[in-house]
Amino acid sequence: MQTASTDHVIVLHGIWMRGIAMLPLSRRLRAAGFSVDALDYPSVVGSWDDSASRLAEHWRQHGGRRVHVVGHSLGGMLALHVAAQHADLPDGRIVCLGSPLKGSAAAGRLGRLPGGHWLMGQSAEILNSGLAAWQQQRPVGVIAGSTPVGLGSVLGVLKAPHDGTVSVDETRLDGIDEHRVVALTHTGLAFSNDVAELVIGFLRDGRFPHEATA
Question: What is the pTM of this model?
Answer without folding.
Answer: 0.92
